[in-house]
Structure formats: structure tokens, C-alpha cells
Amino acid sequence: MTDFGSMLFVFVLATFIGLGVIRRVSRLLYTPLMSLTNAISAIAVVGSIVVTGADHPLTIRILGAVALFASMTNIVSGFMITDRMLKMFKKQ
Amino acid sequence: MHLVSELSAVLATSLFIFALNWMNDPKTARRGVIAGVVGMSVAVLATWIQPEIIHHAWIFAAIVLGFAVGVPLSRVPLTAVPQRTALSHAFGGLAAGLVGTAEFFLWINEPGGGHITPFRMGALVLEVILGFLTFTGSLMAAGKLQEVRWIPQRPVTYPGQNVVNMGVLVLAFALGAALVVNPHAPWGAQAFIAIAALATLFGILLIIPIGGADMPTVISILNAYAGLAAVAMGFVLDSKLLVTAGALDGSSGLILSIIMCRAMNRSFTNVLFGAFGKAQPAIAAGEQKPWKQETVEGAAQLLEQARNVVIIPGYGMAVAQAQHKVRELYDALTKRGVTVKFAIHPVAGRMPGHMNVLLAEANIPYSALVEMDEINPEMPQTDVALVLGANDVVNPSARYAKSTPIYGMPIIDADKAKTVLAVKRSKNPGFAGIDNELYTLDNTWMLFGDAKAVLADLVKQFGGGGIH
Q1: A30 touches chain B (CB under 8 A)
Q2: A9 — contact with chain B (CB < 8 Å)?
Q3: What is the total count of domains within chain B?
Q4: B280-304 exposure pattern, b = at least 16 Cβ within 10 A, e = fewer
Q5: Which residues of chain B fall below pLDDT 70?
Q6: Are residues B91 and B71 in the same domain?
Q7: Are residues B255 and B209 part of one domain?
Q8: Do B360 and A90 touch (CB under 8 A)?
Q9: How far is B441 from B417, CA to CA, in rounded Å?
């Protein structure tokens, strides 16, 4: 059973941490920041894995597999392009 | 097994926070990518080894396909990064919407329906609305950025547009509320599908009236929505890891949206419902002052005699693919002892930070990239301001012309430099559709032509030994 209170608690605390950390991100790096957070929020992949891999009806698993594909695309392209961009920032 | 997944979630969350923390400095930022990849791998593996997962081939196939599409998507030219970002917001929204739909149908078909509580139903409705509206909204934004033929670039407006848009959204939420109150209703499945369809439609309607100049803000807002969709999914699946990662993404989108809005002196509602960038009906009253055109030779001389030069790049530079020629000019000038800096307006380009990435790609050191607030006090001592494909962000009428949509927008004070050189492709107004009086000031000289071609000619002046 979902413990609504503790989930909300986690959400509020994580938002405050997020606001605190993101506020300090270098303004030079907003584009890579967006691709990095994109990849991180593709953690939704764990939800897709459960929907795809568990013993569910076929239609459900198809929905899950498409979601898993979409999340995986974000993870791969998000991390790779972030690294590609960050490599370009040189001091001198 | 439960302990493994709990511990891996804590580890992944910590690594994600470290990843974002390291983004505060370009020197440590690449570490952040490694932390992110490790965190993600831990989370994926910990989920995959759970005993209820039995269809391994399916998972494997979807992951392989994800790599097959993801790798090419990470190699797009940097001018296309805004489109790629919008596309990945779309994928994030799609994943949330699909998982929400799958969970809904799993739960209503369960004997007894014990999973369905009003709270869970509320989270499901939110997940599906946010997911599908982010999906189609981001696809539309990506289409506009990619300049797909059948999606109009200019904002499209019609009478009653906001009423229609809000009506669609309100209807979706009303159906959602009915489901929350009555989670076991016999019409539940139909209502749920209707909610998903309305959210899909709303995403399209939301982006139709939005123009290119607003893309940095819109991409940021869609980023926040994608994060919130992941949070809602976390509530549905009872996953603290998802809630945390989604909240990090959501707060990042929120902060970037606020920064972008402030940089345009506009509110969220104004961006989403204001149809910025519609051609303004004849504001330019009175006589048009004449332009003064400068030759490439003259411009080269001005630049060479300057002690310091500030280059103000805009989206026009990216369109002309001129960033590598900019680098050559930067080299030629620095070699002659001229101090060259780049003034970066927060909304220059098509997404937050776009100019910085384009210039970094051309090997311009990031120490030469200066934010608007830091460069403006230096502008009066600047010998030459070179405006390169920027327009609205240097328009002095933003300071006082109340009738223009850019009124109140902070600008880079190019007009305060001793001399202004403006490279411009044509004599058309910018995205905001307003005349730029910077071009007709006494100390401004125009260089008409494609930014790349003009820069190539300028560099030739320095390289060819033409002037000394």
C-alpha cells in the first residue's frame, strides 16, 4: 500500500535539493545540463522494465516495451551527447 | 531482493545528485556524466534481477533498439541540439504516458481491484496527462525547431484560442477528478482513454501559437513537465528513486524556465498564451533613419585598431554555421593584441546555453564567454561591438518602447560601445517582428550578407597581409 505521506515527503525534499544544486550550475553549461537531467529522468526505465518483463498480458508488455525503448533512447543519447558537449569546454 | 533494490535506489539517487553538483564547473562536469551512467546502470540492473522479471528477451530487445536510435541521436550537429532535446522530452513524456496506461489497465482488470485507490488514481491521471501533453508538445516543438515543412514556424493564432486550449485541459482534469472520486466506475476505461486523448491534443494546441524566439523558454517548461511526469510515475509505482530523479529534472526545468522568462521580461502565462513573435502591426511610425553601410576593408581596419572587441552572437550565427569563422577572427584579433570577448544573452539561440556550446565547439575558450550582466558595465569602454546574427537582444527600444513585445527585456548594451558593427543577412526585422534602431544609430555601421561569408572576408583581410 502506498504511503502517500512519505512519498510526498521525498518529493518535497528532493525538489529542494534539486533547486539548491541546479542554482549553482555554471551558466555556461545549461545546454549539457538539460541533456544530463534528461538522461537522469529517464530513470523511468525501471518502471518500464517491470511492466515489460513481468508476467503481464501481451498488450501491456507491448506498451512497456515501447516505453522501455523510449527511456533507453533518452539514457543513451542523453549521456553521450552531454559528454560530447562537455569535452568541448576548454579553459584556454 | 527487496534490500538490494532499496540500497541500489539510494546509491543511484546519491550519484545523480553528485552528477548535477559537478555541473557547477566545466572542469568537473565530465565526472558528472560518469556518476550518472553508474547510477543509471545500478538502478537498471537492480530492477532487472528482480524475481518477477521473466521476459528477458523483450527487455533485451528494447534496450538494443534504444541504443540503435540513441547513439545516432547523440551525434547530431550542435546546431540541432535544441531539436534533439525537445525530442528527448517527447520520449520521456511518451514513456510516462505508456507506463501509466499499462498500469491503469493492469489494475482495473485485477480481481477485486485492490490496487486502485483514489490517491493512486490521482497520480495515474496526472502521470498520463503530463506524459502525453509533454509527448505531443515536445514533438511539435522539435518539428518547429527542425523547420519541418508542415509545421508553421511563425506563431499561429485564432480567435478564442486560449478558451479552446483551456477547455481541452479542463475537460481532461474534470474527467480525471471523476475517476479519482469514482475509481471503480464501469466507464473508467473509456474515461481514461479520453483523458489520454485530450492530453495528446492539448500538447499540440499548446505549441501552435509559439514562435522561435520563445523556444528557449518553452523547451525549459517542457523539461519541467517531463520531470513532473516522472515524479507522478514514481507516485504510481511507489518508487522513491523515480520521485527523486523526476524532482531533480523538474526543478532543473523550473529554474531554467524562470531564468529564460526573466531574460525576456515575461511571465510563464505570457509565454504560453501570449503568442509572442506575431508580426506587430506597424509600430515603426515616423521616418526611417538611413542605414550606414561599411565595407569589409573598413570593418577590418576598425577591428584592428581597437583595443577591445565584444562579439555579440545570436541565432543568425548558428543558422549561417559561422562559429568556426568566428574562431578564425578571434585568433586573428587576439594575435594582434586585441582583447576579444563574447557577450552571451541568456536567450540567445534556441535553448538555454546554446551559444556557449556552439562557441565551445569552435574551440573558443570558455573564459572568453561572458554573461550579459557581467559584460554590460564594460560596454561603454568597448571600442567595437560586433553584432553577429543577434537582433532583439541588442535592440535599445526594449528600454523604453512600451508598445513593443520586447519592452522591459534586459539587453546587451551594444549601443553604448564606441563603434557598433552589425552583420545582418537582410534588412528584415528579427523574430519579434520589430525594427531595431541599433542599426541606424550614429555610431553603427552595417555589414550586409551571410554571417559566414562576411566573416570569411574579414578574416581574409587579416590573413592576406592587406592591412598592417
Answers
A1: yes
A2: no
A3: 3
A4: beeeeeeeeeeeeebebeebbebbb
A5: 1, 272-288, 427-434, 464-468
A6: no
A7: yes
A8: yes
A9: 11
The answer to whether residue B108 sits within a structural domain is yes
B327 in the same domain as B195: no
Nearest-CA distance A6 → chain B (Å): 9
Task: Assess if residue B104 is contained within a domain.
Answer: yes
Task: Please report, for residues A60, B98, B442, the alpha-carbon distance to residue B140 in angstroms, rounded to integers and kept in the order given.
Answer: 27, 19, 42
Q: How far is B97 from chain A (nearest CA, A)?
A: 8
B335 and B436 part of one domain: yes
Q: Which of A23, A61, A76 sits opposite B67 (nearest CB)?
A: A76
- Asked if residue B291 is part of any domain, the answer here is no
Q: Are residues B26 and B114 in the same domain?
A: no
Beta bridge partner(s), residue B444: B420
Q: Could you give the CA distance from residue B141 to residue B147 in angstroms, rounded to a whole number?
A: 10
| Chain B residues close to A79, C-beta within 8 Å | 33, 36-37, 40
pLDDT at B440: 86
Residue where a domain terminates, one of B29, B48, B75: B75
Q: Where are the domains of chain A?
A: 27-88
Domain that holds residue B22: 1-75
Tell me the pLDDT tens digit for each residue of B67-92: 999 999 999 999 999 999 999 999 99
Contact B52/A53, CB-based, under 8 Å?
Answer: yes
- Contact state of B40 with A17 under an 8 Å Cβ cutoff: no
Using CA atoms, how far apart are residues A72 and B91, in angstroms rounded to an integer? 9
pLDDT in tens, B402-422: 887 788 899 999 999 999 999
pTM: 0.91
Left (φ > 0), alpha (ψ -120 to 50) or beta: where does B306 sit?
A: beta
Nearest to B431 by CA among B214, B217, B146, B141: B214
Q: What is the CATH number of the domain that holds B436?
A: 3.40.50.1220
Question: Which of B34, B244, B331 to probe the A interface (max A CBs under 10 A)?
Answer: B244
- B335 and B425 share one domain: yes
Residue where one domain finishes, among candidates B75, B100, B134 = B75
Return the axis-axis angle of helices A4-23 and B215-237, rounded to nearest 10°.
150
Which of A30, A65, A80 shows the shortest C-beta gap to B74? A80
Would you say residue B134 lies in a domain?
yes
Give the SS3 label for residue B340. Answer: strand
Q: What percent of chain A has pLDDT over 70?
A: 98
- Candidates A19, A34, A52, A83: best to mutate against B (most CBs of B within 10 A) is A34
B63 with B194, same domain?
no
Shortest distance, CA B17 to any CA of chain A (angstroms): 8
